[in-house]
């Protein structure tokens, strides 16, 4: 099936306070955000017409912008309303679609050079039907990860607490490297050699019925990550956030990743290490599905 380029799709994009036709949402080639990565973004999913954790995502967008030294000219409440309006305008509120929303804020083209004090901050939100981030067959079998060569940076060298566009450059490189080698994704270490995350998702491991996950001190404490930790604790599962070294991987029985796009997806191998799709991973996958699809769960229970 031919892929329709993202600049040639139908619908609307919310751009600087207005719903504009998709093809008209354009920026100039001398936009500061394109040349110097002065941009922050979010990823959100909607289920049955409701955008999951909408306000939390827009709050993080604001926080990311402040870390990059600019202010978003729309309040969190205004961005929440814009996202909901956009979902309706693009007819993405039904239960038969899998909407993904991408808010982004960036410095404009008023000034070129490293300094960007005079630039205008632009904001856009796009929404489209986007199914599984990974191949559905791979999700059923569990993802195959290789080890990345690039590492997540020291917080003293990059704004690691922001969801900044520039921080994803090495993620793209490692995702490409993994796919060319026949893997689904790559596991990134941090600058200390500790396990950090996949290229676009947080990671969890299971050992003797206990969840272990890297402490997010140099990468994002994902909203889906926080949600899954809450679900695990509701189940009475112990969750340990700590430094995890690569040599410990042989001690874990299960592994999964979490993220807005990836949701909760099992991992079957990381390099030479193998993992089973066990009860804890299955339970948390089901619990997450039930959380984001409450109407379907109630209907199934009633039927």
Shape by Cα distribution: globular
Low-pLDDT runs of 5+ residues are none
CATH A-level architecture of the largest domain: Alpha-Beta Barrel
Distance between the termini: 37 Å
| Residues in helix, % | 25-40%
Order of helices and strands: EEHEEEHHEEHEHEEEEHEEEEHH
Number of strands: 16
- Percent of sequence in beta strands: 25-35%
Number of helical runs?
Answer: 8
Structural class: alpha+beta
The CATH class of the largest domain turns out to be Alpha Beta
Provide the number of structural domains.
Answer: 2
CATH topology heading of the largest domain: D-amino Acid Aminotransferase, Chain A, domain 2
CA radius of gyration is 20 Å
**What kind of oligomer do you see?**
single chain
Mean pLDDT: 94
Tell me about the largest β-sheet.
Answer: 9 strands, mixed
The CATH homologous superfamily of the largest domain is termed D-amino Acid Aminotransferase, subunit A, domain 2
Short account of what is shown:
Helices cover 28% and strands 26% of the residues.
Q: If you had to describe this structure to a student in words, what would you say it looks like?
A:
By secondary structure, the protein is an alpha+beta fold. The protein folds into two domains: about 5-130, D-amino Acid Aminotransferase, Chain A, domain 1 (2-Layer Sandwich); about 135-290, D-amino Acid Aminotransferase, subunit A, domain 2 (D-amino Acid Aminotransferase, Chain A, domain 2), CATH 3.20.10. About 30% of the residues lie in helices and about 25% in strands. α2 packs across α3. The radius of gyration is 20 Å and the shape is globular. The mean pLDDT is about 95.
């Amino acid at each position: 099936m031919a892929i329709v380029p993202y600049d040639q799709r139908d619908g609307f994009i919310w751009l600087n306070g207005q719903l504009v036709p998709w093809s008209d949402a354009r920026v100039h080639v001398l936009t500061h955000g394109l040349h110097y990565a002065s941009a922050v973004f979010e990823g959100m999913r909607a289920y049955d017409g409701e955008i999951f954790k909408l306000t939390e995502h827009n709050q993080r967008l604001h926080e990311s912008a402040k870390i990059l030294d600019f202010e978003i000219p729309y309040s969190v409440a205004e961005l929440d309303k814009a996202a909901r309006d956009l979902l309706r305008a693009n007819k993405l509120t039904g239960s038969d679609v899998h909407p993904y929303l991408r808010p982004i804020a960036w410095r404009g083209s008023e000034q070129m050079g490293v300094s960007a004090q005079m630039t205008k901050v632009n904001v856009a939100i796009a929404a489209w039907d986007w199914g599984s981030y990974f191949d559905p067959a791979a999700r059923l079998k569990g993802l195959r990860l290789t080890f990345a060569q690039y590492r997540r940076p020291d917080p003293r060298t990059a704004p690691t607490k922001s969801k900044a566009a520039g921080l994803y450059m090495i993620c793209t490189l490692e995702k490409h490297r993994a796919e060319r080698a026949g893997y689904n994704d790559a596991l990134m270490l941090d600058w200390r050699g500790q396990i950090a995350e996949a290229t676009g998702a947080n990671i969890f491991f299971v050992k003797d019925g206990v969840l272990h996950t890297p402490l997010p001190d140099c990468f994002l404490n994902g909203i889906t990550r926080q949600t899954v930790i809450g679900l695990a604790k509701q189940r009475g599962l112990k969750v340990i956030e700590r430094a995890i070294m690569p040599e410990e991987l042989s001690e874990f029985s299960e592994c999964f990743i979490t993220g807005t796009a990836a949701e909760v997806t099992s991992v079957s191998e990381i390099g030479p290490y193998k993992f089973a799709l066990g009860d804890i991973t299955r339970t948390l996958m089901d619990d997450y599905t039930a959380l984001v699809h409450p109407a379907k769960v109630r209907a199934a229970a009633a039927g």
